[in-house]
Each structure stands twice: as C-alpha cells, then as structure tokens.
Amino acid sequence: MASIVMSKKFQLGTGRKKDASLILDCFRGVTALQPYWNKWIVSDVWVDIIHSRYDLSDDLTFTHKELNTAVSRNKLYKSSDIEITAIANPMGIYKAWFKTRNKETKKQLTIVAYYATSLNTLPTVPGGNSKWVHDMVSLTPTITTRSATQNTTTRCLPEEVVGSMPTKTAPTQKRLRCAPGSFVTNDPSERALKMMGKKTPSET
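Structure (tokenized):
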C-alpha cells in the first residue's frame, strides 16, 4: 500500500473566503490523491483529510455538513450522477449514504460517504460486506514485521496408528479342502513328515 506523506501541506491562494468554491476545491484536491482511492470514506473523515492536507486558517475550516451541502448543490456533480453507483461516471467520484440512530440521543442520523477512483471506473458496492472508513486511523498504512522463526520438521505416524503400534502376529494356519478330519499345514517340515507317513509334533 502506498504511504501517505503528511509533511507538506497544500497552500490555497490568498484572499480566499469560506464558501462552496473553497470547499469543493479542497475536496477535489484530496480525492485526486491515490492513497485515498477505492475506499468508501465518510464525509467527516474526508473533512479531517482536507484539514490535515491543507494549510487552512481557523476561519476557513468547515464541517462535513458543509461539505455535503456544497457537493449536493454543485451542478457538475449533479450532472455526473455521482449518487448512481451502478454506472461508471467520468469524474470517478461516487456518493452513498445510510440512516442510523444516535445511541445516546436516539435521533436519526444520515451517514454520507464518498468514493474516489480513476475516471469511468465503477466503485465497490456500498452495501453488504463493503467496509466504510470512519476514522483517520484506518487510512494510516500499517507495517507488518515478521520475526525469524525456525521451522522444524517432525516426522510422525499417521493418525490411525498414533498411540497403538501394530504388532506382529503368528502366522495362521489355513484350512484347505481335503478329506474330512484332515488338517493341512503350511509348515514345510510338517508337510515332509506327513509325506513320509510319520506323525508330526502336533499329532503326538
């Protein structure tokens, strides 16, 4: 994942005032940054990104509600149908929302999110398993360190014989078809005695 460099802030021209033009300029600036692409980011986090990337004086900072108002009233965003997420638009900006309730006040809230991507590219479906970014921490790249581990190969018995080793059993004598009462053995020495007409040890 690409790292997000926060060292240098963007500068706005002098003499700017807080209006829809300033808000949308800032929004376009951050949505053009690829580290923030391909994510459903809620509007208040987009505002946090803007305030972290732009050198704005206190009188020029704005809220997520002001951002949502500026976007919804802008003719360019309206004509691009950014609220339709099933059809790609030429701006690569999409908007979605859902309603919820504040756990403390029980008031209904509308959570708005924007999705930035390359031009004429569809976003991921905003519902279902799609994750929405609700804080700046989720946008910070994580570094995974792997400790060196020694892999030892242990040879073991298959499951079916673990715990009970098979033991050798004495060979069983086999009955063959012959005269009634007779017993044919597989032992060569006993067969030889039989052929000579002598008694075998088992018959004595």
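Residues 97 and 112 are 4 Å apart (CA to CA). The first strand starts at residue 40 and ends at 42.
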